[in-house]
Structure formats: C-alpha cells, structure tokens
Amino acid sequence: MNSIAVKAYAKINLGLDVIQKRPDGYHDIKTIMQTVNLYDTVCIKKTKFQSVTVRSNLNYLPTDQRNLAYKAVLLFRELYPFKDGLNIYLNKRIPVSAGLAGGSADAAATLKGLNQLYKTGLSLEELMAIGARLGADVPFCLLMGTALAEGIGERLKPLPPLPDCHILLVKPDISVSTKYVYENLRLNEIVKHPDIESMLDALKEKNLYRLSALIENIMETVTAREYPVIEKIKEKMKENGALSSVMSGSGPTIYGIFDNQLKAETAYNFFKSSQYGKYVILTKPYNINQ
C-alpha cells in the first residue's frame, strides 16, 4: 500500500462548561462532544524523498509546522521511524477556525492513515495517547461518536448516541481566538453554569427535547459579548424552528438542532439567502456504528 485516504470528521459541543483554571495555565472543562457528518479528506501518499509536504485546496491554510496534520506526521515518524517521504493533501470542507475541530480532525485522520499505511497495529487507545500530545481535541476526533470530555478535553467517556436529528451550522464572517476567549472568561462572575449532568441524563433517556432545552455553552459569555451577530444568529435559528441554538467550542460557529427535515431545510435556505453566515451547512449527527 502506497497511499490512503481518510475522512476527518468535525465535532460540535453539546454543552460546554469551564470548571477552573489550572496551575499549568490550562482550563479544566466538562463538555459533551458529538461528531457530525461533515468531513475533510486527508490523502497520504508515500514518496521516494524523505521530506514531508502538505498541500490543501485552501491557499490560506498553513502547510508547515503550524498545521496539525504536519505535526502528526513528525510525531508519528519520531515514535515509529520510517524512511519514506510523504505527500499529504487536505481536501478541506470543515470551515477553518470555527470551533468545529477541523485541524484536530485532520491530525486524527493522519494518525489513523499512517497506522494503516505502515501497519504499525496501534490500538485506538494508543492512537489517542499520541493524539493527546498534539491537541486536546485530537483524542475525541479519533474516538468519535458521542462522549463526555473532561480535564482539558483528553479524558473521554463514550456516551449513548445523540438521538436522530438535523444539525444546521452557521459560521459568521468573523474569527475568534480560543486563547482570547479563555483569557477573558470571568469564572468568578458566572453564577449559572451549564447543567452537564442533566444533559447526560437526557442522552441516556434518548430525549432530544429535554437535551435541547438544557444545552448551553459558557464560552458564549465572552464570544457573544464581543460579537453581537452570534446572538442574532441564535435568535433567527430559533425563529426558524430550531429546538436549540448554541455556539460550538470557542466559536464562532452556531449550530441549531432540528427534529424535522423540512424545518431544517427552511432554516438552511433562510441563512443561505441572508448575510448572517459565511458558511451555512446542513448535516446530521455521525455515530461510530454508521
């Protein structure tokens, strides 16, 4: 085998709470992560040269050591040396810097691809341990499905799948720095935190309506304050039939959960014809048994 193509799936956060700032400068979080059926394709091809090259369909995407897929190759080669060079091509569909873990998904897919290409036989748990060295979201992007994430996001517990629904993603034409959001999160001033435990109960009950009513993201206290368009998108999403509308991760992508395809398509058409979203994508949950 000289080449392989691997799908790299995006994620959303079904509720996100930040517990505390740690002595090491990171933050402890508690969140429910969900894979959605939106993916990049990572194509890996062996070459006769020893160099690693990364290319993409997006000309503004970094293709050097700032790119997580590139970092994944270097780390994998350090742990399991091989002499080949590699050409990596990233066919990007997940919006960049959107709170959807596109870069982490690419890194996870790269690790999966290298494991198959070089027949290293690493287990999912071993791949996740390597992924944790690349970024907090990479282990989940390897696990996929529905999971509770704690610590900085690397401690994962698989959960019952999100009930069948339609998910509308709207990313406004703004960029948000995750570092800035964490630095400006005023945990001492926040009285009401997302009720993650009740969300877990709703998932066990397979109750989409109860879950949707509970979903909150504490990061909105920073991002929505800075960018009023986020609240506007949430309002319009609910006006168009969403059971819930919440920001994913540190943003700025907003997602809406719909129990009806017609409502979801109507909302999609509204946002496609509006000025609210640079990217508007209608998708569904992706669970690992699919």
TrEMBL record:
Keywords: ATP-binding, Isoprene biosynthesis, Kinase, Nucleotide-binding, Transferase. It catalyses: 4-CDP-2-C-methyl-D-erythritol + ATP = 4-CDP-2-C-methyl-D-erythritol 2-phosphate + ADP + H(+). This is 4-diphosphocytidyl-2-C-methyl-D-erythritol kinase. Residues 199-273 form the GHMP kinase C-terminal domain. Catalyzes the phosphorylation of the position 2 hydroxy group of 4-diphosphocytidyl-2C-methyl-D-erythritol. Belongs to the GHMP kinase family. IspE subfamily. GO terms for molecular function: 4-(cytidine 5'-diphospho)-2-C-methyl-D-erythritol kinase activity; ATP binding.
